[in-house]
Design goal:
single chain, 252 residues, two-stranded antiparallel sheet, elongated
């Protein structure tokens, strides 16, 4: 090889060394490779205590058409009395010790108001059903007591009654009708929550079934940090790279 060739070869080696030295300070960023992992979506589960619950139909506004739906003020007062009666009979936890005294105090302080409510409710049945009103009223009262005695909501219902009963006992004369408008929804809330839970479960189950009934689904899942695989550009990309150019990563 003549002197010119040796000079050119030396210049090429020197340039290569300079490029490698430059690239050592400008190493392209590492890229974490995503793992492709099958994900099995579990079947929705309904709590066992809700298994026998059949939610009532919903009204146009989305509210449940329970026995407390769409009633008049006299019925609302009578339903509060019925709910607290059920609580006084059935709630026996240590926290429920004040229920019976509070219920009895309500009956005493609201005697005239509750008697008038009872008369108005019965008069409504007579007006609508004539001679057959008594049997229909008996069914209505049975349904009313059974509603507030649903076992699945007992703990939360008793807690609500513990809070409502002392308030009911201290309502001033003439104020029970207004009190019932807020007390009744509070006493009913535990049962509404159960209905919503059942309906939410049905929606989730339908979506799960439509999605393949729990078959494994391939989704991108980030690998744990300790298992990340790093990929870098190859040597040709390094040698060709110049400051200001986009970094091209050859993932593998």
């Amino acid at each position: 090889m003549n002197g010119l060739g040796r000079a050119r070869q030396g210049a090429t080696l020197a340039m290569t060394a300079m490029l490698l030295a430059s690239c050592s300070h400008r190493q392209p960023p590492a890229v974490a490779a995503a793992e492709i992992a099958p994900v099995v979506v579990p079947r929705p589960v309904l709590p066992a205590e809700l298994g026998a619950i059949v939610p009532p139909p919903r009204a146009a506004d989305g509210s449940y058409q329970t026995i407390n739906h769409g009633i008049d003020p006299h019925q609302a007062m009578w339903h509060v009395r019925a709910a607290l009666n059920v609580a006084a009979i059935g709630c026996r936890a240590p926290d429920d010790a004040g229920l019976i005294p509070a219920y009895n105090a309500m009956l005493a302080s609201q005697r005239a108001t509750l008697a008038a409510a009872d008369i108005a409710v019965k008069a409504s049945f007579r007006a609508r059903l004539g001679a057959n009103w008594q049997a229909a009223h008996d069914v209505y009262m049975t349904q009313l007591y059974n509603f507030f005695a649903q076992p699945a909501a007992k703990a939360r219902f008793c807690a609500a009654a513990d809070a409502i009963a002392p308030q009911a006992a201290s309502v001033p004369a003439g104020g029970f009708e207004a009190f019932a408008q807020t007390a009744l929804p509070a006493l009913e809330a535990p049962f509404i929550a159960n209905y919503r839970a059942v309906d939410d479960y049905r929606v989730a189950l339908a979506a799960w079934t439509a999605g393949g009934a729990g078959a494994p689904r391939t989704e991108l899942a980030a690998a744990p940090e300790s298992e990340l695989r790093l990929s870098y550009a190859d040597m040709n990309s390094l040698l060709a790279w110049q400051p200001g150019q986009p970094t091209r990563i050859a993932a593998r």
